[in-house]
Amino acid sequence: MDDRALTDLCERYRKVYSGVVADVLDKRGLRNQIVDAAIQGLTLETRIAGPAFTCKGAPATALEPDDWDMRKAFLDSLTPLSVAVVDSSDDTRAAHWGELMSTAARGRGCTGVVIDGGTRDVSQLLTMDFPTFARYRSPASSIRRWRMSGYDHPVRCGGVVVRPGDFVVGDADGVVIVPAEISEDVLAEVESLVTAENDMRRELLDGGTFSDVYDRYQVG
């Protein structure tokens, strides 16, 4: 997919909502693409849509060497329009993301982050309007508490396997992962479903009975 096509795909996904994306994936039999509901945006207005660029790490001790070389390589490798996806290996102590990483990521064209773990610098992230989804917040630096082990390979985020390039869609309801190879087909179905839902809403507001309208649209 060239840059123009990817830009168009991202823009179109940002106009729909995660619930209808999840519905389309459910109808395709892909019922395990919804990230753990504990991973939420910093605000209800936080939205993301873009191809995943993944990294993974695990809890560490102060006796282990730091991971600055890996972190720098990861941040320098982020691609335009991507969404960073962080697999913390269930660490619950540290902040795995913050303002400095967000600034570096934005400079590389990355458009947001989904962290199966923690973030800090929340005030700064809100001020700079960097879309961030996280499981928790913590002031604790991850340096020598958590060690990045690799990036740009399949990871697990909120119980969902995420491969580089899989499409990440997040909003006030949560985050959904769309397999890369069907991201365009799924979006076409999503847009068709959104149109049907809008038509259904209009008929309901005009006084149509739910049973009649639903039976005709089979949406909801």
How does this model look, in words?
- Strand 4 (95-97), helix 4 and strand 5 (113-119) form a beta-alpha-beta unit.
- The strands form two sheets. Strands 1, 2, 3, 4, 5, 6, 7, 10 and 11 form a nine-stranded mixed β-sheet that branches.
- This protein starts with a helix and ends with a helix.
- It is α/β, with parallel strands linked by helices and 220 residues long.
- Helices cover 36% and strands 26% of the residues.
- It contains seven helices and eleven strands.
- It has helices at residues 3-14, 18-27, 68-77, 99-107, 122-128, 183-205, 210-217; strands spanning 40-41, 48-59, 83-87, 95-97, 113-119, 132-137, 146-151, 155-157, 160-162, 167-171, 174-178.
Low-confidence sequence ranges: none
Helical run tally: 7
Structural class, please?
alpha/beta
The portion of residues assigned to helices is: 25-40%
Number of strands: 11
* Shape, per Cα inertia axes: elongated
Distance between the termini: 32 Å
The largest sheet, given as strand count, sense and whether it forms a barrel, is: 9 strands, mixed
Beta-strand level of the residues, as a percent range? 25-35%
Order of helices and strands: HHEEHEEHEHEEEEEEHH
Radius of gyration in whole Å, from Cα?
19 Å
What's the average pLDDT?
93
Describe the secondary structure blueprint for this structure:
Blueprint lengths: L2 H12 L3 H10 L12 E2 L6 E12 L8 H10 L5 E5 L7 E3 L1 H9 L5 E7 L2 H7 L3 E6 L8 E6 L3 E3 L2 E3 L4 E5 L2 E5 L4 H23 L4 H8 L3
Would you kindly provide a brief summary of this structure?
The protein is α/β, with parallel strands linked by helices and 220 residues long.
